[in-house]
Specification:
The chain is built from ten helices and eight strands. The protein has 255 residues and is an alpha/beta fold. It has an eight-stranded parallel β-barrel, surrounded by five helices. α2 links the parallel β2 and β3. The structure holds phosphoenolpyruvate.
Length: 255
């Protein structure tokens, strides 16, 4: 299986989001072997997108979740409330949130909240340009994965989705190289196996400047189970081409 995740960030109104989602759905060929598609609009657009995707194979994801359950937490959205509007997934630990102060402990708590509510977390990890230049890439990934997932028990059949997103490749001119992606992905797999967590199924996605021109090559990489797409997910033709690349790879490899 290949995963294609669209992260709309804080870019669109509800009306713009619906138009985008309608366009993406229109381009889907239901006769194809489709990758697992997960759309993560802004909170305010979740109910509208849920209505649009209801009878399709597309899944709904949030971009963030509270680290606690329901209660007096102004401005937060609890995992149960995301389930209530139809979410099956949520991003956790995106670098833009970590840069705004989200800690490793916050990420860990959010994962526990998501799993307890029945959401599948998509956990983002990755190093900054400065960390890579200082040869800290493996140390950063190790720290982020370890604090996020040590002793976390995934319910049976809930996959552990990790998105490796080198911060320097997000919104950049080009993605990380195949060698850089492959090295990070194999480290992540190795770490997950050693953590003492209960995980049936591990999928490691790549994120950072994926678009229609490079998706096929990235998805063809053995180590890559999918892509997390920011900017290119806001363009119907780009995102549709990325989905088609997922289909092409899955069809070629009979995954
Ligand atoms: C992201 O921010 O998760 C991302 C992958 O962005 P982009 O595709 O625009 O690099």
């Amino acid at each position: 299986m290949k995963y294609i995740v669209g992260n709309y960030k804080m870019q669109l109104t509800t009306r713009e989001t619906s138009a985008l989602v309608k366009g993406v759905l229109h381009g889907l060929s239901l006769d194809d072997v489709l990758p697992e598609i997960i759309l993560c609009p802004t909170f305010t657009a979740l109910p509208d997108v849920q209505k649009l995707i209801k009878k399709t194979p597309v899944n709904l994801g949030a971009q963030n979740v509270a680290s606690t359950g329901l209660g007096a937490h102004t401005g937060e959205v609890a995992a149960a409330q995301l389930v209530d509007v139809g979410c099956t997934h949520t991003l956790i630990g995106h670098s833009e949130r970590r840069a705004a102060g989200e800690s490793g402990d916050d990420v860990h708590e959010k994962i526990l909240e998501a799993l307890a509510a029945g959401l599948t977390p998509i956990i983002c990890v990755g190093e900054t340009a400065t960390e890579r230049a200082a040869d800290q890439t493996n140390a950063v990934i190790t720290r982020q994965i370890t604090s996020a997932l040590t002793d976390v028990a995934f319910p049976r059949k809930t996959p552990c989705l990790i998105a490796y997103e080198p911060v320097w490749a997000i919104g950049a001119a080009s993605p990380a190289t195949a060698a850089q992606i492959s090295e990070a992905h194999s480290l992540i797999r190795h770490l997950l196996v050693g953590l003492g967590s209960v995980i049936d199924d591990i999928a490691v996605l790549y994120g950072g400047s994926v678009d229609a021109s490079n998706a096929l090559a990235i998805l063809r990489e053995q180590e890559v189970d999918g892509v997390l797409v920011g900017g290119a997910s806001l363009k119907i033709h780009e995102f549709s081409a990325i989905i088609k690349a997922g289909t092409a790879v899955m069809t070629a490899t009979h995954v």
